[in-house]
Design brief:
Length: 395
């Protein structure tokens, strides 16, 4: 491992711990404003909305300013935004603050750029595995802190301490980047051009394999983000959980993703290939969604969320890797950028929609609708397996 990489992984861990710390609080913090399920889901979607523009803007700025400088600035401002979120007087101001925070937290492309700077192409997949592990560790650690420090009453004061803690972790990540991180490539002093998404869209729609991979990623990530958004409301209604219990339940999500990334995905891809691993991941997603309302116990409620995250962590990195491997070098940037934008749109649109389904139909309906969505998309995953088999046979 390049010695410049560990400081980035530490920064990712600290930053994601702060971001994920908020997640178990949102269903209850939204209730402080009298929010309905649709409006609570907006708090989740608002962050992704800001992320879309942040990824585009900060990815370009990191080429001209340097990765380190961008990470120092963005994590600092994102940390300060939590103060505004803690004292938001209305739901819609809280939603606006989440958009602002999402914009300054849209630095995944910056981190990926840093990884590309310090790793050779043949080692990049393994390096991205380290990145995924740091992400999952932060995701496992953060929600527990949020649950531990949240108060029992559904009032604003109960959530201010963990929100301040989330902001403090983000500021700590900024200080760490300033002290420990060093750019591997000198800043170029000029913004990189925006990806040509129109050309990438024409290229993808003309390739049946790539079009299927895009659809798999879009609908799969949309369904996962929606289950994440309604889980707090559902567990509160079924088990009487507060933010404390929900924080520990989110631990299962982080552990499920960590286990899939560190233990499962490498051997499974080596033995079965990415396309079949996508099918396996989608099957785990659909199974966890169907069983959640059917079994309906606190233990299964935790374990099945871990299975949900494991399926997510198997299917969508594999889809991204397969997409990258079937895209020519000159189209890599625009095509992968289009994929990130497409996935972000899914995370924006789907959670409020599933929140409305939760509020208008029933609390169990989102699980079944999500399972049907994944089952239908799994047909595309099976077609992908067959298309690749025909390609190999023709070669």
């Amino acid at each position: 491992m390049d010695r410049r990489l560990p400081p980035l992984l530490v920064a990712v861990f600290i930053n994601i711990a702060g971001f994920s710390l908020i997640l178990p609080l949102l269903p209850f913090y939204g209730q402080v404003f009298g929010a309905q399920p649709f409006e609570i889901a907006l708090l989740f979607a608002a962050y992704s909305f800001g992320n879309v523009f942040g990824e585009i803007y900060w990815g370009r700025k990191s080429d001209s300013w340097g990765r380190r400088r961008v990470l120092v600035i963005t994590t600092l401002v994102a940390g300060l935004s939590y103060i505004a979120f803690a004292y938001a007087p209305t739901l819609w101001i809280a939603v606006f603050v989440r958009i602002f925070s999402g914009f300054f937290s849209g630095t995944l492309s910056v981190c990926q750029g840093f990884i590309a700077d310090v790793s050779t192409p043949e080692r990049r997949a393994k390096t991205m595995g380290y990145f995924g592990a740091a992400f999952s560790l932060g995701f496992a650690f953060g929600p527990v802190l949020g649950g531990v420090f949240a108060g029992e009453e559904v009032v604003a004061q109960s959530f201010r301490l963990p929100i301040f803690l989330a902001g403090g972790l983000s500021v700590l990540a900024s200080v760490w980047c300033m002290i420990a991180l060093r750019d591997a490539v000198p800043p170029r002093g000029k913004d990189a051009p925006l990806p040509r998404y129109s050309e990438a869209l024409s290229f993808v729609t003309a390739q049946p394999l790539l079009l299927r991979l895009f659809a798999i990623s879009f609908f799969g990530i949309a369904a996962f983000a929606s289950m994440e958004a309604i889980y707090g409301l559902w567990s509160e209604a079924n088990f009487g959980w507060s933010a404390n219990e929900l924080g520990f339940a989110f631990l299962a999500i982080g552990i499920g993703g960590l286990f899939a990334q560190l233990v499962l995905i490498g051997p499974l891809v080596a033995r079965y290939g990415e396309a079949r691993v996508i099918v396996i991941g989608m099957a785990l997603l659909a199974l966890s969604m169907v069983l959640q309302p059917m079994i309906r116990t606190p233990v299964s409620g935790v374990l099945l969320m871990g299975v949900l995250m494991a399926g997510h962590s198997l299917a969508f990195p594999s889809a991204g890797a397969l997409l990258s491997r079937n895209t020519p070098p000159e189209r890599q940037g625009s095509t992968m950028g289009l994929l990130m934008a497409s996935n972000a749109i899914g995370r924006i649109i789907a959670p409020p929609l599933f929140g409305a389904i939760y509020g208008r139909w029933s609390m169990d309906a989102p699980w079944y609708v999500g399972a049907v969505m994944i089952a239908l998309v799994s047909i595309l995953a099976v077609q992908t397996v067959r298309m690749l088999e025909r390609q190999r046979a023709a070669a």
